[in-house]
Design the sequence.
């Protein structure tokens, strides 16, 4: 995110006093999945760029020109961006099995739905408890990818047991988060990798390296690299589309006169 002053270089007809960005958070901190210290760092960086925060609040209503919070505050607004995070759909929440308070399916360390042997749940729809910490694993990609492999091994083992009578021990999901990263705009970020904390441009650079390494093909990696290099060398490309109505009318008149 760029500061207001920097953004307005591209929009000369907008006055800085007309712009107000308010971030409503239903907690007393941001980036709760990363780290308290890095969350405070990100919070201060965004405040320095002019972003206002309403902590421990939720949006419970909106009109064409206002946003209403559950604490009674009404914010005059014409643009509302809703980022409520990941939640489960009704098809998951209505299944006849155990759920946590967010509606996720309760699964054991073998990724089996509790009370339903041979039925597996993983990823965003599953609540799987880390036996070492007693807390649910976070719903992030690095966990879901490895859960898929564990579930596949257990399904294959169950199929082989039925077909060949060979009983194989089930695989348990036991994974320690390698790290978490977050970009907060303008070459700034926060990250924890193998217990080490990074802030600022170093965290942003590590995030970019990880992102690039996980792109699926060489072609896509090259395209992303070129875009990033262009972004470093040149200013943002702000395109303005002008209406050509008068010119079109003039051309039409000339054509009619010639006819």
Sequence:
């Amino acid at each position: 995110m760029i500061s207001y002053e920097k953004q307005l270089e591209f929009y000369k007809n907008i006055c800085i006093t007309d712009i107000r960005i308010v971030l409503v958070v239903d907690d007393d901190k941001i980036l709760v999945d990363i780290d308290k210290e890095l969350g405070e760092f990100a919070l201060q960086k965004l405040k320095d760029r002019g972003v206002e925060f309403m902590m421990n609040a939720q949006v419970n209503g909106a009109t064409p020109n206002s946003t209403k919070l559950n604490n009674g505050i009404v914010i005059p607004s014409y643009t509302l961006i809703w980022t409520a995070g990941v939640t489960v759909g009704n098809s998951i929440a209505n299944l006849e099995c155990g759920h946590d308070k967010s509606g996720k399916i309760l699964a054991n360390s073998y990724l089996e739905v509790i009370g339903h042997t041979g039925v597996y749940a993983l990823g965003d729809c599953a609540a799987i408890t880390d036996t070492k910490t007693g807390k649910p694993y976070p719903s992030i990609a690095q966990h879901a990818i490895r859960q898929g492999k564990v579930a596949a091994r257990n399904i294959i083992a169950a199929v082989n047991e039925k077909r060949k009578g060979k009983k194989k021990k089930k695989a348990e999901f036991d994974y320690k988060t390698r790290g978490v990263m977050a970009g907060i705009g303008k070459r700034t970020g926060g990250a924890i990798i193998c217990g080490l904390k990074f802030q600022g441009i170093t965290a942003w650079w590590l995030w970019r390296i990880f992102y690039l390494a996980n792109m699926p093909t060489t072609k896509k990696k090259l395209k992303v690299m070129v875009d990033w290099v262009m972004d470093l060398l040149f200013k943002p490309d702000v395109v303005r589309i002008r209406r050509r109505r008068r010119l079109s009318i003039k051309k039409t008149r000339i054509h009619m006169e010639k006819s």
Remarks:
- The chain has two domains: 4-85+178-233, 90-164.
- The mean pLDDT is 83.
- DSSP finds seven helices and ten strands in the chain.
- The helical segments are 4-7, 36-48, 90-93, 141-164, 201-213, 218-233, 245-258.
